[in-house]
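Thread: Modeling a multi-component assembly for a lab meeting

Hi all, long-time lurker, first post. My supervisor asked me to bring a structural picture of a complex we are working on to next week's group meeting, and I have zero experience with this. I have the sequence lines for every component (1111 residues in total). Could someone generate the structure of the whole assembly? Inputs are pasted exactly as I received them:
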Amino acid sequence: MGEYSVQELTSILAMQGFAGISLFSVLLLMALGLAIIFGQMGVINMAHGEFMAMGAYTTYLLSVMTQTYFPEFMNYYFLLAIVASFLVAGLFGYLTEFVLIRHLYKRPLDTLLATWGLSLIMQQSFRSIFGAREVSPTLPDWLMGSWMPTDTIFIPINGMFVLALTAVVTIGVYILMFRSTWGLNVRATTQNRVMSGAVGINTKQVDRLTFALGCGIAGIAGAAFTTIASTGPTSGSLYIVDTFMVVVFGGAASLFGTIASAFTIAQAQSILEFFISGSMAKVFTLLALVIILMMRPEGLFSIKVRK
Amino acid sequence: MNFVYERFLGGKSGALAIGILALLILVILPLALDLFRLNLVGKYLTYAFAAVSLVLLWGYGGILSLGQGIFFGLGGYAMAMFLKLEASDPESTSIQTTPGIPDFMDWNQLYELPWFWVPFESFTFTLIAILVVPAVFAFIIGYSMFKRRVGGVYFAIITQVIAVILTVLIVGQQGYTGGINGITDLRTLNGWDIRTDEAKYLLYFLNAILLLGVIMLGKFILTSKFGQLLLAMKDKEDRVRFSGYDVSNFKIFIFCISAVIAAIGGAMFTLQVGFMSPSFVGIVPSIEMVIFAAVGGRMSLIGVVYGTLLVNYGKTAFSETFPELWLFLMGGLFIAVVMFFPNGLAGIWNKYAPKVPFLRPLLAGSKKAESKTEPAKIESEPTTEGAK
Amino acid sequence: MSYFSRRKFLGKTGALISAMVAAGFITSTAIAADYPTAEVNTTGLSVTDDTVTVGILHSLTGTMAISETGAQEAEKLAIKQINESGGILGRQIKIIQEDGASDWPTFAEKSRKLLVNDKVAAVFGCWTSASRKAALPVFEKENGLLYYPTFYEGLEQSKNVIYTGQEATQQILAGLDWVAEEKGAKTFYLIGSDYIWPRTSMKIARIHIEKVLGGKVVGEEYKPLGDTQFGSVINKIRLRKPDVIFAAVVGGSNVAWFKQLNAAGITSDKQTLLTLSVTEDEVLGIGGENLEGFYSVMKYFQSLDNPNNAEFVKAFKEMHGEDSVIGDVTQAAYLGPWLWKAAVEKAGSFDVDKIVEASRTGEIELDTAPEGYVKLHPNHHLWSKTRIGKWNKDGQATVVYESELIEPNPFPEGYQ
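Re: Modeling a multi-component assembly
Sure thing. I ran the full set together rather than chain by chain. Output:
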């Protein structure tokens, strides 16, 4: 590598470091919603990817509407879209819990199947409403391009945006879960449902809101990902395996575990990808995860999950 | 003889049910359908192997594998490798740089047959491989997971990830595997052309008989002491463990058996359809296999065959007439089965058939057998209780 | 949205076609009488005194529906136009459409259904190589005829298939020659999705770059299908500083690739990028702003400026709505029915063997193709021109280069 100057190599190193952090924020944002649902309720939501797609389509709709009716607001609509995605996906999650999930709490494997059925229906709905082709929301100008702290370092603005958003959401979840009365109720319900009910917590309401919150966060993730990836009827299914790996690897019921797991997986993958070809990097990362999980089934950080 | 009757057929009701199924797939369907449709049914019946394997593993063992496609694929690929080698004789591949190796290898600059392909020139080896490779693979996965008491949702997700890894590998290593196109253009089996009409009939019947055999094997396993333990384990695993049994060994064993059954299905799939591709290994086909089992009834070895036929027939029929509706229907069916009919078609049959007057005499006396083999207590499925 | 317009269109054309059948029948009786059914159909195909049945086989559902929609729309347009102009040998074309459902065995099954049960005279369909590979043995065994529209990796030549898209060397070599000459490119970074088409294409590209152009490949990369993370790859590219990025990424990955490339500051003012896998269809998902100034190498762009194309674009938009776009494969699919018509008329028969024989004379040509004059080579592929298009923000390309007619060469000597 003699042909490169020190400055160039440092820049690449810096950008590669950011690529890893950026992947970390993407994985974490994807997994947060699932981690809440799985960790707190033991429910596997196979339609998680579709809730993300729902957020992405909400963003797309808003982009089209803004462009048609209020073109002068194009610079700001995206912030509104994030809120809207959260609300739309959250509301739909709330309904899903009411109609579907609450009947299946005693059968976790069955929720997995039922939500898979739900994901099929959602995919086809997206296709019927928005068409089979991928769509692309028009992004505000401030989200495009990159920030250049020096002449040779390019930091993608959309990457920084996702990173910041992930930080906000994670802190929000932390406060909600560990610093609010509602969070206390959720954790109490998780630990002992009957006792929680006995002391006056509306456990059913807690379940419903927890599920809605998880889905809402998936919606936020979907909105954010319109800046870096594709929006189509089946886009959600691209993320599902990665998301599960983050949650399982981190260990259920542990916010810190999910963060650590997303960080480890992201760094492993992004460093491997730098040195070997893309698809083998993926195989090695997943294989390593499977082997580690076989040796340490409870995940990185977790209270006991054996049965 | 009585032993066979009780254990392999499952007593009077069992024998009757197998008899009806045999009549349907061996006589009625071949007479009623033209070869094109029969060939389709043949393909569906290969998926039924995977569904049957899930009855043992999931219905009775309580272990949900979202990776049965792995084993279906291993069996299918083993058979496809043999057939491809036979189709790639030096004469018909004479335009290649290296005649005598499969065409996709030639395109990918391989100049000799990779070592792991060589044994597949032997039909005997291939047959053994179809049974042994999936079993060994399942043993490795099962040993490392069940010994550490990984189960429930974790097992489901890990098998799913393994299916993804295998798919990415097959697609990526196309010089060795045929890549995303799979292994195609298979022609003869030991010189016998598998594409002719007679061959298609023969393979259909072979497949149907093998399926019936596998179902009887399943009955045998479930009526044995092992089957009883399996059920006990599913309901109260800890009690079985405290009774002195090594629960993980049972789980590993049933996982291996189910892998082999799925692999036989895969091999028969390759023979009847004429190719194998990674799209039968990944997440989607694996979950579809679970759908077949769920719709047919996860506790019923015979019900799942009907479930498989019904779902696939629906898929073909709907995709011909209302392609847009198909996914709605499939998704809806899935949710409905899980929520309202956890025992699937078999559950509906068991509930309503005794109420139909002319069926009653046939079913009389089967109550005992049923209550023994089909406790159907889905609610008590072992959970991961991740948040305990 | 596009879905609704498609639905509307299906209903409308259905009515239109049946009206055409009624009307066309009268004008073409004279010709049909010159070709008695017994003579033009000796193999028991579904041909009557006034109709001939063909099949259309594309994915209407599943992941591939995105791509295949345009192709089947174009095939229907061509068939409608042929019917309006009097049909083939005085016979109106009837369509049986089947859904391949993005599932390869289904393609094989439905091919068998179309050939064995429906006895169609020709099938227009398939999109991915995998679906074609699955269906191919069926066509060979039943002696059917398939018109395949997609640009693909080559390495195949079947008696029973006519390939109306470009094979890899037609598309790649001209593109690389242009970029080497026009941009003085010496170093190349190759990146594609991990499956057979990109890998074969890159293999051909590498040989051409190293042996013919005297350039250097500074990196070669394959990402799994559906992967959406390109951060590390982009840094690798930055490290190697290639003159040209040569890309064949597909599907959802393609969208992520261009969005992230743009965000990383690798834009067309600093970097030349030539891609094999972006047509007007893909631009909808990627967004024109992310592609602006990059180049695609294709045989057809919607913006091609010639009278044939103007007419084609107008007719296509009339049928499928003002917002519809036409990509390379869509145009190639449109050629299928016309090439079949030309071959049938030359052979004076619907028999597959006679059509194949006529197709192999090298005299089947179309002056009316939107891409300009094309000719069928005896190796079942088309002579065609290759173009370089530079993408604009509005999702259309400006054609900056056009080659001579290039001979198809599915088994390129020295490139294997």
